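Review the following:
>
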Amino acid sequence: FFDAIKMSVSDSNHWEEFYETTKPPKDINRIEIEIKNFCLEHLCSRIALITSGGTTVPLENNTVRFVDNFSAGLRGASSAEYFLKHGYAVVFLYRDNSLQPFHRHFHRDQFLDFLETVHNDGGCLGLKLKEGLVPNIAKVVKDYEQCKERCYFCTFTTLTEYLWLLRLVSIQLRHHKNKALLYLAAAVSDFYIPENEMTEHKIQSNNGPLELRLQLVPKMLRPLVSQWIPNAFIISFKLETDENLLESKAREALQKYKHKVVISNLLQTRRTSVKIVTLKSTELLTMDECELLQNVEIEEKIVCKIICLHNQHCSNF
């Protein structure tokens, strides 16, 4: 019992120390005002914070080099669309230049392939969408127009920016109580270099081989559940490469951090198979060949299941 208390105090000191020794994003005051207004506007609605994309860990204060947790952000972006379609308001906290809901359907390097030139009667050159693309693009644009007022977009790049914004948004969502849902799909670094241990300027290669000593990032799930937004329905993600660890590691996280759900998947099959793990149950969601041929996304199934579990969570209050 006393060991557990010591561990809790130690963990608390660790994450509090992180915020005391790192600088917040430069525009955090503007973001706080906008988030507060967005939350007030949707106070009577269910609201989801969806985090997406990877974080960078700078190696210098004037950053030239960094360690990157790569993630395209597909799971977060596609899931956000389905939450919006189910009537949720969404705060989409995503890595700058990663995929965004609705925008993800238009690959930036294929943009010119969507268009063709036309000449009007006056001889002026114009542009139009290629005929065969109009139905699909029109559907995406229509869906976006119906949802855009219920989505707030906020970007991060570094680990520090992400963790500051995670705390900020979570605290602002507290007023939604059990109607708030946190879907933590971002690929967050486990290691970082504290700002006071970083060199100020670019690391020089003529100094010889580079040795790095990285510190563990505090596990923010603990204060998230116990302090920042205790009544929310919180979902974390776990990626493994060993199937034998898939369920046990997920349940271990639930017991340790006291949140509600872990979405667990293997690296090799993450697009076609996931496990929805709670303390009491495990459900396997899979895609069959017919669904894959019809371009059904597994995120649609994930979000439907999560909303069912959120309904149960809300009915307990």
Q: What stands out?
A: The first strand starts at residue 47 and ends at 52.
